[in-house]
Structure formats: structure tokens, C-alpha cells
């Protein structure tokens, strides 16, 4: 600014106005700078607190992350244990299907093989299956009748699966009585053979109710096992959902590290503060010049128009400088507010993480209970599977029993055919002997009559008193106490069928207790 020149006293009031404007600008600038400096100083402390909070947040978040990994490991362990149990159960289900299919197959086979009516109808003397409803049924498992006697003594009772075999009326070895009964039997045979659909099958002598009870017990035990398994079915997904929820709630790491953000903010504030200091110095210099000019004017000096125009021009630039100062102050305030918000946000993150830690502690207790429950489920499942396996062994025994039952029946058919052949052969021999004896007796009678007619009149009566006797007549009878054996009528095709079935099961050995 140039030195003052003499001027008219009328210009001095205008100079006072310029001095006041300059002073006001300087005072406002000082206020802005003072507030900005205060915020700048506080910003440094805020930045330190943000860094400290960020360090805590990152440390706790990392610790929580590790805890969540452990929780995920627990969920995976429970899932693997459940998978191992499910594999065992699936294996049992496969075995169960195999056993039930085998049992159903032999039962269908039994249902497809008819039993001649002579084996179970008419009197007890002609039935080969014994009494179907014995008085002792109530004392036998599943209603089975007393085992057949051998040599007058009861045979050993069958094992439990055989209890599902039932026997109709009659027993082996009983004898029929009377020709009238035989005639009735023959008539009934003709009627029965006319329609085999009315014949009983081997399946009719099986206690289906006992089998259904066994299968129902297996099904109930299997459902109980499923209920045991379902106790922990929700554990893995529930844990995973909880873990995912906690992990998603963790603070997201900033793209730019907090330290870098703080450094950039403080550097920006340093630059802004330096710029404000320069502008404040400019305002102070302008005010000093204007105050000096006013003193010179009061001392009697005057300024030229050019000097006054220059002072006016400088004063007119004050609003621009003040606007820049105000912008700088707003920048400082904005950066300060961002630091404060960062601190508050970090504090909120820290508070949230502390709450997550509490949730993790509760989750740890829950997982401990889950593991204990899973261990209990494993023990119960092992016990249930052991019991179910024993049930399958029962099905296996039933299948084996019915296979032996069918095989024994087929051999029974062949045995009856063999006995009929024996009976026919012996009866042929007996009938032949009787016919020969009758012929010999008749011939002997004729010879004796001829002799008596020729010589009897010439012999004294007291010589050989038996000369007039008829020859002894002979008959062939069953052993004393025995009755004639009555065997069932068996069609030839049934004998062929039995033989073919035996050839298809040649590897099965039938013992004396098969029936």
C-alpha cells in the first residue's frame, strides 16, 4: 500500500469505515481460526481414541472369528456323528428289507402249495397234521400245539420261530375205523379234487398273527429309533444359522485402514490450518495498514484518490478472504465431525462385539448341552440297533423255519407216496395169499369129499374120528392190536411238484424236528 498523500478532510469518514470493516474481518477471522484450532487439537485426541478403539475391535473380532470356527467345528462334528448313525440305520434298513422280502417270498411260496384235504380233514385217524386247536395251545407260544410224540415221549419243544406253525386236527399214526368211513372219505375226495381252490395251502398252517406281531414290534422299535435320531436333527443347521448370524453381525473391515484414514485426516487438517493461518496473517496485515492510514489521517496527512481506490479495492477483497476462511473452518469442522463419528462408530462396534462375546458364552453352554445330548443319542441308538438286529435274527429264523417246513412237507408227500406203494405191494401179496389159500382149501375139500364118498361107508365109525372134518380155512390178518393202515390220496402231479421243489432246494437238510 502506497504512502498517504495530502487530501481533503472530507475523505476521512470513508477511511474510518474501511478500518472498521478490516477490524471486523480480522476479529471474525480470529474467531474462525480459534475454533478451528480448538477442533484441530481435539481431532488429534479423537484420532488416538479411534485408533485405540479400532485395535480393540479388530482384536475382539479376530477372537470371535476363532470362536466361531470352533463352533463350526462342533456343528460339523455333530453332523458327522449323525451321518455315521444314519449310515448304520440305513444299513439296518437294507438288511431289514432283505429279511422281510425273503420271509414274504417263502410265505408266498407256502401260499402257492396246496395241501390235499386228506391231510387235515375227516377224523383224527386219517389226518396227518394233528389237532389244529389242541387243548394245550394256550400253554404254547403263539398258540402252537404240543410237539409230536416219538416212542411215547414228548419231543423237545421247538424254538420261538416255529411257534408260528399251526397244525390242523388229527395226528400222525392214528387209525381210521370202518368201511363206511372209507366210503365217505372217498366221496369227499372226489368233491375236493374237483376244485383245488378250496384246498388249504401250507400258508394256512402258519400263524400270520404272530408274524404280524413280530413285524409290528420291529416297526414300532424302528419308529422309536427314528424319534431318538430326530432329537438332534436340528442341531447342525441351527448352529450354522447362529454362527452365520453372528459372523454377519461382525463389523466389516474398512477398505482403507483406519490408521491411514487418521493420517490423511490429520494431514488435511494441517494443510487447512496452515492456509487459515496465512489468511489470518493477511487480514492482520490489512488491518495494520488500515489502522496506520487512519492514524496518519488523524495526524493531518491526506491520501490521494489512487491510494483511496487501492484501499477500497483491498477492503473489497475481504469478503473473499472471509469466505475462504469460512470454508477452511467448515473443512476443519467436517473432518473433526468425521473423527467424532468414527470414534462413536468404533465405540458402537466395540459395544456390539462385547454383546457378541456374551452370546458366544451362551452358545458355548448350548453346544455343551448339544454334545451331551448327541452322546446320549448315540448310546440309545446303539442299544436300539442291537435290539433291532436281534429282531432281524428272529425274521431270519422264521425264514429258515418255513423253508424247512416246506421242505419237510415235500418230503412228507414223497414219504406218503412211498408208503402207499408199500401198502399196495403188501396188500397185493396178502390178497394173493388169501386167494391161493382159498383155492387150496376148496381143492382139499373136494378131495376129502371124494375120499369119504368112496371109502367112508366101509370104515368103522370109531376109527379116525376126524376123517369127516373139513380142511382148515386160513386168513391173513393185521398184527394183533393193529388196524389196517389208511393213507391219504395224493394226486400224481402233486407228487411230481414236491419232487421238483426238493430238487430246487437240494442243499437243505431236514432234521427229525422239521415239523
What's the total number of strands? 4
Strand content: under 5%
Task: Report mean pLDDT, rounded to a whole number.
Answer: 78
Distance between the termini: 137 Å
Cα Rg = 61 Å
**Helix/strand-derived class?**
mainly alpha
Helix and strand succession? HEEEHEHHHHHH
In helices, the fraction of residues equals: 55-70%
Q: Determine the number of helices (DSSP H or I, runs of at least 4 residues).
A: 8
What topology, given as strand order, has the largest sheet?
1-4
What is the approximate shape? rod-shaped
Main β sheet profile:
2 strands, antiparallel
Unreliable residue runs: 1-13, 123-128, 130-162, 167-181, 508-515
Oligomer: single chain
Subcellular location: Cytoplasm; Preautophagosomal structure membrane
Pfam families: ATG17_like
Membrane topology: Peripheral membrane protein
Region (Disordered): 127-186
Amino acid at each position: 500500500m502506497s504512502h498517504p498523500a495530502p487530501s481533503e478532510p472530507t475523505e476521512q469518514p470513508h477511511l474510518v469505515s474501511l478500518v472498521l470493516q478490516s477490524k471486523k474481518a480480522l476479529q471474525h477471522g480470529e474467531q474462525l481460526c480459534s475454533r478451528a484450532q480448538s477442533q484441530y487439537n481435539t481431532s488429534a485426541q479423537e484420532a488416538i481414541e479411534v485408533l485405540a478403539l479400532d485395535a480393540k475391535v479388530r482384536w475382539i473380532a479376530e477372537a470371535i472369528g476363532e470362536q466361531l470356527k470352533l463352533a463350526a467345528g462342533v456343528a460339523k462334528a455333530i453332523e458327522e456323528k449323525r451321518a455315521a448313525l444314519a449310515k448304520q440305520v440305513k444299513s439296518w434298513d437294507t438288511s431289514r428289507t432283505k429279511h422281510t422280502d425273503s420271509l414274504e417270498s417263502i410265505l408266498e411260496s407256502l401260499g402257492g402249495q396246496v395241501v390235499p384235504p386228506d391231510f387235515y380233514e375227516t377224523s383224527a385217524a386219517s389226518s396227518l397234521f394233528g389237532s389244529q386247536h389242541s387243548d394245550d395251545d394256550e400253554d404254547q407260544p403263539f398258540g402252537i400245539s404240543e410237539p409230536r410224540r416219538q416212542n411215547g415221549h414228548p419231543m423237545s419243544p421247538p424254538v420261538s420261530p416255529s411257534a408260528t406253525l399251526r397244525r390242523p386236527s388229527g395226528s400222525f399214526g392214528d387209525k381210521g375205523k370202518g368201511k363206511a368211513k372209507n366210503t365217505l372219505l372217498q366221496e369227499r375226495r372226489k368233491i375236493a379234487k374237483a376244485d383245488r381252490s378250496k384246498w388249504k395251502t401250507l400258508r394256512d398252517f402258519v400263524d400270520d398273527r404272530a408274524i404280524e406281531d413280530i413285524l409290528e414290534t420291529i416297526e414300532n422299535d424302528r419308529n422309536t429309533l427314528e424319534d431318538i435320531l430326530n432329537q438332534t436333527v436340528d442341531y447342525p443347521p441351527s448352529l450354522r444359522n447362529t454362527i452365520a448370524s453372528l459372523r454377519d453381525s461382525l463389523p466389516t473391515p474398512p477398505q482403507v485402514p483406519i490408521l491411514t484414514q487418521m493420517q490423511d485426516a490429520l494431514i488435511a487438517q494441517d494443510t487447512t490450518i496452515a492456509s487459515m493461518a496465512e489468511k489470518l496473517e493477511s487480514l492482520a496485515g490489512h488491518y495494520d495498514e488500515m489502522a496506520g492510514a487512519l492514524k496518519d489521517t488523524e495526524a493531518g496527512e491526506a491520501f490521494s484518490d489512487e491510494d483511496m481506490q487501492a484501499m477500497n479495492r483491498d477492503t473489497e477483497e475481504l469478503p473473499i478472504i472471509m469466505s475462504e476462511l469460512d470454508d477452511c473452518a467448515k473443512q476443519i469442522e467436517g473432518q473433526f465431525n468425521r473423527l467424532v463419528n468414527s470414534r462413536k462408530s468404533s465405540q458402537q462396534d466395540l459395544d456390539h462385539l462385547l454383546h457378541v462375546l456374551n452370546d458366544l458364552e451362551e452358545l458355548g453352554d448350548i453346544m455343551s448341552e448339544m454334545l451331551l445330548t448327541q452322546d446320549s443319542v448315540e448310546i440309545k441308538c446303539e442299544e436300539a440297533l442291537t435290539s433291532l438286529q436281534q429282531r432281524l435274527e428272529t425274521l431270519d429264523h422264521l425264514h429258515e423255519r418255513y423253508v424247512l417246513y416246506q421242505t419237510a412237507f415235500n418230503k412228507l408227500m414223497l414219504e406218503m407216496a412211498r408208503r402207499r406203494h408199500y401198502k399196495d405191494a403188501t396188500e397185493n401179496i396178502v390178497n394173493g395169499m388169501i386167494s391161493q389159500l382159498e383155492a387150496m382149501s376148496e381143492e382139499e375139500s373136494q378131495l376129502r369129499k371124494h375120499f369119504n364118498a368112496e371109502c367112508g361107508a366101509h370104515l368103522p365109525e370109531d376109527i379116525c374120528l376126524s376123517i369127516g372134518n373139513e380142511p382148515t380155512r386160513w386168513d391173513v390178518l393185521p398184527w394183533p392190536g393193529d388196524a389196517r393202515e389208511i393213507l391219504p390220496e395224493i394226486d400224481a402231479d402233486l407228487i411230481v411238484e414236491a419232487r421238483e421243489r426238493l430238487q430246487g432246494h437240494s442243499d437243505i437238510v431236514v432234521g427229525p424236528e422239521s415239523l
